[in-house]
Design goal:
Radius of gyration of chain B: 22 Å
Strand order of the largest sheet of chain B: 1-2
Strand order of the largest sheet of chain A: 1-2
Order of helices and strands of chain A: EEHHHHEEHHHHEEEHEHHHHEEHHH
Distance between the termini of chain A: 45 Å
Radius of gyration of chain A: 24 Å
Oligomer: heterodimer
Helix content of chain A: over 70%
Number of domains of chain B: 1
Largest interface: A-B, 86 and 80 residues
Order of helices and strands of chain B: HHHHHHHHHHEEHH
Structural class of chain A: mainly alpha
Strand content of chain A: 5-15%
Number of helices of chain A: 16
Chain lengths: 464, 355
């Protein structure tokens, strides 16, 4: 480790992990969600021979592929940087954390990439049934990859099925079954899976709404919007439900994270929840809106349940782990938690109001709703990011909760190296973002052309 | 905080040997498959005369390049799981080199997906440059890295890295890099001979006639140098001499096969050379995984870097059950897309014509 101008390897490595991971995870949920929805549209087209569905499967398929490409290339960085920036962590957890990563490659990534290759290039070359199966298998691959990476992350939040090897100091696996049935994993997986479906559905709805407002292929896009609204509502409710379950688990497993979500300094019975705070979070706020008893309901599912405060938890951690600061950065946890939950509830409202309009048959006439739906395009991406920022920042100072601190996890590499790659990746990713958004807008705006059967009669020799 | 400590080396267990072999197989698979992807990318500016040629070349690897790259991800993940200390020491030690590889792979992957998304010549020209550099740089750097594994990197006690980036680009390692760069390019040429049609196929054949002897000379130089240093530093895993000699013989045959228009066999031959070359590297490493240039006592071995038997057993079962499926469906893709790629016929103006 080294220092340049007050910046340490640790600080820069943390920034690098934050930048690359948040960026990567903008694309992953859309890949999972949109992949599933495109597979559904293609199934509908296959079953009904309705050309609206076929046109939409192709249209959103194109957007799906633009997005998928970035998820793939930024994914390799994720795997490599554990070793590059966090080599002490890698040595410490490799016995346990490495296994799901390797299995993810073998089970999920091969499936995803191979069948997507068949889906892109196989149109007209394989039978329609095989072509349909290939998008489903690719979609299954994306959902499987989330299984393994979340099993790995859940172990960092709540380590189980391990012991510390005395000779090497490493955490070693004693029970693989315990690792993949970690109680934390179940909640995390379905929370993320629903959030991914929600991302795909809101994306679809926003683009459909844009076209409906412009009167482009209205009939087709209204059909899609109806599907997207139903999926938005169901997956938003699913995300909220799972998140609520996770909150009680978090209160039991990582009480400091729960306290940090509210910036609750002292243990309180029947704790209230602040919707927002103006001023500082140390108890001297200028203005707050508080909902009585809500925090106790979230954390303990009871009206007067006890929620532990930061001061008491810090004292207990010092006793347990030795001197040190065990409090995460509160303004990050406080605001990221609120923004995640707030945006999630807003998306429930989007789905609810949308469904009401669909039932009243007023969807295509409601200009304000269509505009609102288009604006909501950003909401799932922001909510996903804030969710991860909350759960990872809320675990600090630990990288593996209770076992290894982030400060102990970093590689012994020079600060110049990390600075170089941090600047490099930030520049490359910004460039990618510009290209990607430009292409997305270009493709999303084009009214999908009339479907010609030409593609199917003449196998696409040159797709790229 | 548990203090991490590297144990003294013992002789490797059967499970550790198995996982060393499996990781070697993953790297071999990666270089065999992505080797021709790299080759096609490197040859892109040299074998094309117009955009249609370039599309033909890119489409020969279009359906498969992404799946081929997963071999790398799986090799990385398997190393992380089976030999955490190997993974951690290599990835942090080769920091800048890996950053360059990652940057190259990012631009190359983007280029494949994005170059056709806009009908604009300069847009495509930029992405074509990304394909070339994004293929050439990793093809070179992987060779440098594997030569370094073998020749030694500056690690001292407790796997602590004591050198910098320039310790990794010594002449021996650079020769290793040039060897793989040239070998993968040749592999790409034989692949295009097998998969492309028309002019591109002809040009690929001609480039193979030129590349085969160049690769032969580089490979001969690199293997001789390896052979000499293997003796001087008393490595315990000497090259079984028949293997590199066999590799050179097969490599010498590539030129003849290309001359006689037997591109399919030439492709088999370059694939074989890649396999033999990397088997030689791994055999010479064993039972070490990373040679120390500071002193032989600091070299990292299988037993020092491996995960515990329990992890290796779990991973063995997973690999045993699922690998056959992966091999099956990945081979099936190559079967689906077995036809040669040719310049597209313009679509008939009227639907009554053609079919």
């Amino acid at each position: 480790m080294g220092i340049i101008a007050g910046l340490t390897t640790l600080t820069l490595a943390r920034w690098q992990f934050g930048v690359t991971t948040v960026f990567h995870f903008l694309f992953v949920p859309l890949t999972i969600g949109l992949g599933f929805l495109v597979a559904c549209l293609q199934t509908a087209a296959y079953r009904t021979n309705d050309e609206h569905y076929d046109r939409m499967a192709r249209f959103f398929g194109k957007l799906f592929l633009i997005n998928f490409a970035i998820g793939v290339v930024t994914g390799i960085v994720q795997e490599f940087q554990f070793g590059m920036d966090w080599s002490s962590y890698s040595v410490f957890v490799g016995n346990i954390f490495g296994a799901p990563l390797a299995i993810e490659g073998l089970l999920a990534f091969f499936m995803e990439s191979t069948f997507l290759g068949i889906w892109i290039f196989g149109r007209g070359r394989v039978s329609k049934r095989v072509h349909l199966a290939s998008i489903w298998l690719a979609s299954l691959g994306t959902m499987l990859s989330a299984v393994f990476i979340l099993a790995a992350n859940s172990w960092m939040q709540h380590p189980v099925g391990f012991k510390i090897d005395k000779a090497t100091g490493q955490a070693v696996m004693t029970d693989f079954w315990a690792v993949i049935t970690n109680s934390t994993f179940f909640g995390a997986y379905f929370h993320v899976l629903f959030a991914a479906l929600l991302t795909g559905a809101v994306f679809m709805l926003a683009i459909a709404a844009w076209h409906i407002r412009r009167d482009q292929q209205k009939e087709t896009f209204v059909k899609v919007a109806r599907i997207a609204i139903v999926v938005t509502l169901l997956s938003a409710l699913g995300t909220c439900f799972m998140g609520d379950t996770q909150a009680r688990q978090m209160d039991a497993q990582q009480p400091m994270k729960m306290a940090a979500a509210e910036a609750l300094y002292n243990t309180t019975d029947g704790a209230s929840f602040s919707l927002l705070t103006i001023g500082d979070l140390t108890g001297n706020a200028l203005f707050q809106i508080r909902v009585p008893h809500l925090l106790s309901l979230i954390a303990d599912n009871s009206w007067n349940g006890e929620v532990k405060g930061i001061n008491q938890l810090q004292a207990a951690d010092v006793k347990k782990f030795g001197a040190g600061n065990y409090v995460p950065i509160l303004w990050i946890t406080y605001w990221s938690f609120r923004l995640m939950v707030g945006l999630g509830l807003l998306m429930v409202a989007l789905g609810g109001v949308g469904l009401w309009l669909v039932r009243k048959k007023r969807l295509e006439k409601s200009a304000w709703f269509l505009r609102f739906a288009s604006l909501m395009l950003l909401a799932p991406f922001l909510a996903n990011s804030f969710g991860w920022i909350f759960t990872e920042e809320g675990r600090q100072p630990w990288v593996v909760y209770g076992l290894l601190k982030t400060s102990q996890a970093v590689s012994h590499v020079s600060v110049g190296y990390v600075a170089t790659s941090l600047i490099g990746f930030t520049a490359i990713y910004s460039f990618l973002a510009v290209i990607e958004i430009g292409l997305m807008i270009k493709v999303a705006r084009q009214a999908p052309g009339e479907v010609s059967s030409r593609d199917d009669e003449h196998p696409l020799e040159l797709v790229y | 905080m548990p203090h991490l400590h590297v144990l003294a080396s013992t002789s490797p267990s059967g499970l550790q040997q198995l996982w060393f072999v499996l990781i070697a197989v993953l790297w071999l698979g990666y270089f065999f498959l992505e080797g021709f992807d790299f080759g096609v990318g490197i040859l892109l500016p040299f074998l094309s005369r117009d955009d249609m040629d370039r599309r033909v070349m890119i489409n020969t690897i279009g359906p498969v390049w992404d799946g081929n790259e997963v071999w790398l991800i799986t090799a990385g993940g398997a190393t992380f799981a089976a030999f955490p200390l190997w993974y951690a020491t290599v990835f942090s030690g080769f920091y800048l080199a890996l950053f360059l590889v990652l940057a190259a792979l990012i631009f190359r992957g983007m280029a494949f997906e994005f170059r056709g998304k806009k009908d604009d010549a300069s847009w495509r020209a930029w992405w074509d440059r990304a394909i070339f550099w994004g293929s050439a740089l990793p093809a070179l750097l992987w060779g440098v890295a594997f030569a370094d594994f073998l020749h030694g990197v500056p690690i001292a006690s407790n796997a602590t890295w004591t050198g910098n980036f320039f310790d990794l680009v010594k002449p021996y390692a650079l020769l290793g890099g040039l060897t793989t760069l040239s070998l993968f390019t040749l592999h790409g040429a034989t692949f295009l001979g097998l998969k492309a049609d028309g002019e591109v196929r002809q040009r690929a054949r001609h480039s193979g006639l030129f590349l085969a002897p160049v690769t032969f000379v580089l490979m001969l130089g690199f293997l001789s140098w390896t052979y000499v240093t293997a003796h001087t530093t008393h490595h315990n895993g000497l090259v079984p001499p028949f293997l590199p000699i066999l590799g050179l013989v097969v490599l010498a045959g590539v030129g003849w096969l290309m001359r006689d228009h037997l591109e399919g066999w030439a492709f088999v031959a370059t694939a074989l050379v890649i396999v033999i070359f990397f088997v030689t590297v791994f055999l010479n490493l064993y039972p070490r995984v990373l040679v120390s240039s500071v002193g032989p006592q600091f070299s990292l071995t299988l037993s020092q870097t491996a995960s515990q038997p329990y992890t290796l057993k779990v991973m063995s079962w997973v690999a045993l059950i699922f690998t056959p499926f992966v091999l099956l469906y990945q081979s099936w893709t190559y079967w689906i897309f077995r036809k040669r790629v040719r310049r597209a016929e313009p679509f008939p103006a009227s639907s009554s014509i053609g079919s």
